[in-house]
Specification:
The complex is a heterodimer of chains A (about 110) and B (about 110). Chain A is mainly β and about 110 residues long. Helix content of chain A is about 0%, strand content about 55%. Chain A contains no helices and eleven strands. Chain A starts with a strand and ends with a strand. Chain B has about 110 residues and is an all-beta fold. In chain B, strands 2, 4, 5, 9, 10 and 11 form a six-stranded mixed sheet that branches. In chain B, strand 6 and strand 7 form a beta hairpin. Chain B starts with a strand and ends with a strand. Classes of the chains: A mainly beta (about 110), B mainly beta (about 110). Chains A and B meet through strand 5, strand 9 and strand 10 of A and strand 4, strand 5 and strand 10 of B.
Chain lengths: ~110, ~110
């Protein structure tokens, strides 16, 4: 199994809503990532979890709250988002043990904030 | 600041021709580079990678060249096919123990029959 699975594929939410994006991998990877991608732009790193601990937060606003319940799961909790937060949110995982390696990406969750 | 950029935003080629996509990076400490392909509505898909102690790596129909002197990376696709049409991103890993992978701006490759 070499997949990173993201749910939901599409999400529409209002600015006062609370929602969550979910990501799951069963490759035994110990590093997981959230990226944000706007249309016609490259993915931008948001968070990196290594061994279930948050290791990198790229100055992301607190209305985005990541959570790593275990080594296979990664969540992104959303609250009080703005329309400009509408984007494709990509989850990835890697087998990093201190050595850089390939990131495996999911298909993304497309978020629309009204 | 740290950045990865591309020379050409769009590349149009004829089917069967070879394609070359270029990328410039600015962080001399980067130790690992990846090329990703992204089709419309999908997540990035790994194509090939190269570490900083190498200058060339070949895969199936693809070759990556790394020139650390001028901080330049290129992806060569042989006998380009319609299925190669996508956006291609180079990405550099900022060394430091974690995979901090930073993506370049991307090049759209359009393959014409």
């Amino acid at each position: 199994d070499t997949e990173v699975t993201q749910t939901p594929k599409h999400l529409v939410m209002g600015m006062t809503n609370k929602k969550s994006l979910k990501c799951e991998q069963h490759m035994g990877h110990r590093a997981m990532y959230w990226y944000k991608q706007k249309a016609k732009k490259p993915p931008e790193l948001m968070f990196v979890y290594s061994y279930e601990k948050l290791s990198i937060n790229e100055s992301v606003p607190s209305r985005f709250s990541p959570e790593c319940p275990n080594s296979s799961l990664l969540n992104l909790h959303l609250h009080a988002l703005q329309p400009e937060d509408s984007a494709l949110y990509l989850c990835a995982s890697s087998n990093s043990g201190g050595v850089a390696g390939e990131l495996f990406f999911g298909e993304g969750s497309r978020l629309t904030v009204l | 600041g740290e950045s990865v950029g591309l020379h050409l935003p769009t590349l149009s080629v004829q089917e069967g021709d070879n394609s070359i996509i270029n990328c410039a990076y600015s962080n001399s400490a980067s130790d690992y580079f990846i090329w990703y392909k992204q089709e419309s509505g999908k997540g990035p898909q790994f194509i090939i990678d190269i570490r900083s102690n190498m200058d060339k790596r070949q895969g199936q129909r693809v070759t990556v060249l790394l020139n650390k002197t001028v901080k330049h990376l290129s992806l060569q696709i042989a006998a380009t096919q319609p299925g190669d049409s996508a956006v291609y991103f180079c990405a550099e890993n900022i060394s430091g123990g974690y995979n901090k992978l930073i993506f370049g701006a991307g090049t759209r490759l359009a393959v014409h029959p």
